[in-house]
């Protein structure tokens, strides 16, 4: 009888290496394709073609409506956090004042007991004492306090009686941030940009309905493979080669002849957003771990490495 090899042996109580490999066990890597990369003329927030584009100083491009809604939502959130922080500070101040008042009351009681401890003080006329030598009304009062404490005592084993931990709100930052670059962003730091559309004579018949943009200097069609540079003074967009060759040297825009400096040249960020791959790490990984003896695995979604 021929000997069974690991590739054909399927009656074992555990998975062999060949079976794990066929089931996709381990880490699998795949390079993201064109559909996973954001186009250069798409908004970083809505991922749609740009409408009235605005660019930040780090090169992230947004639609005007999208970035205004984002900044407005951030300001509303900051206002809400500031109100919560102010309410918390007010509550802490009241608790501190109440604590000081209770401490002063305890000090006064201690002083009173120290100076009048030899003389018994009774509040009723019966002058009844219990077996411990204390006044009956006082013992009843203490007992009622104990019963109330037992009745209100929190139970860690009951979800309904579990004590609540105090949640402290930290002082929020009052600065709005860029949703893509996570740096401080103000509305006045945004500047509009404009792409040069390709003329009808240069368009192909197959792409007649698509809007394509070109570099106004070298007339090369702009794609994701090119590095783009925008001028913060006038907003015109050039390719990186023309920018280094002409703009950086002449300090003048080639379209409108408006002067510029080196700090006015902003490199547009290319690639993706939080929903797509960007930068040099365009590799998605997927990990699958097989459960013991079940044939089912714990699967983690693909993430950018």
From TrEMBL:
Q: Which residue range or ranges hold the RING-type domain?
A: 215-257
**Keyword match Zinc-finger:** yes
Q: Which InterPro entries match?
A: NOSIP (IPR016818), Znf-NOSIP (IPR031790), Znf_RING (IPR001841), Znf_RING/FYVE/PHD (IPR013083)
Coiled-coil zones: 68-110
Predominant place of localization: nucleus
Protein origin, superkingdom: Eukaryota
Keywords per UniProt: Coiled coil, Metal-binding, Nucleus, Zinc, Zinc-finger
Which Gene Ontology cellular component annotation is one that this UniProt entry carries? nucleus
Q: Where is it localised?
A: Nucleus
What Gene Ontology molecular-function terms does this entry list? ubiquitin protein ligase activity; zinc ion binding
- UniProt similarity note: Belongs to the NOSIP family.
Protein name in UniProt: (wild Malaysian banana) hypothetical protein
Give the organism the record lists. Musa acuminata subsp. malaccensis
């Amino acid at each position: 009888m021929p000997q069974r090899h690991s590739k054909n042996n399927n009656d074992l109580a555990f998975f062999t290496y060949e079976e794990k490999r066929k089931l996709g066990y381990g880490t699998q890597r795949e390079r993201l394709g064109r559909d996973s990369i954001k186009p250069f003329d798409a908004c970083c927030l809505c991922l749609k073609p740009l409408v009235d584009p605005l660019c930040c100083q780090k090169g992230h491009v947004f639609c005007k409506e999208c970035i205004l809604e984002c900044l407005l939502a951030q300001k509303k959130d900051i206002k809400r956090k500031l109100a919560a922080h102010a309410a918390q500070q007010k509550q802490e101040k009241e608790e501190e004042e109440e604590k000081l008042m209770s401490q002063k009351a305890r000090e006064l009681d201690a002083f009173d007991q120290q100076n009048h401890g030899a003389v018994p003080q009774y509040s009723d006329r019966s002058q009844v004492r219990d077996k411990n030598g204390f006044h009956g009304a006082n013992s009843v009062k203490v007992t009622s306090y104990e019963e109330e404490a037992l009745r209100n005592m929190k139970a860690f084993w009951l979800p309904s009686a579990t004590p609540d931990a105090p949640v402290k709100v930290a002082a929020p930052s009052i600065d709005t941030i860029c949703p893509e670059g996570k740096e401080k962003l103000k509305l006045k730091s945004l500047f509009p940009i404009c792409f040069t559309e390709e003329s009808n004579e240069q368009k192909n018949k197959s792409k007649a309905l698509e809007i394509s943009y070109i570099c106004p200097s070298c007339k090369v069609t702009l794609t994701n493979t090119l590095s783009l540079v925008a001028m913060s003074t006038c907003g015109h967009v050039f390719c990186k080669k023309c920018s280094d060759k002409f703009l950086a040297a002449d300090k003048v825009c080639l379209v409108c002849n408006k002067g510029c400096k080196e700090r006015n040249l902003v490199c547009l960020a290319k690639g993706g957003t939080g929903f797509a791959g960007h930068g040099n790490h365009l590799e998605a990984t997927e990990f699958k771990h097989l459960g013991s003896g079940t044939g089912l695995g714990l699967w983690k979604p693909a993430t950018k490495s």
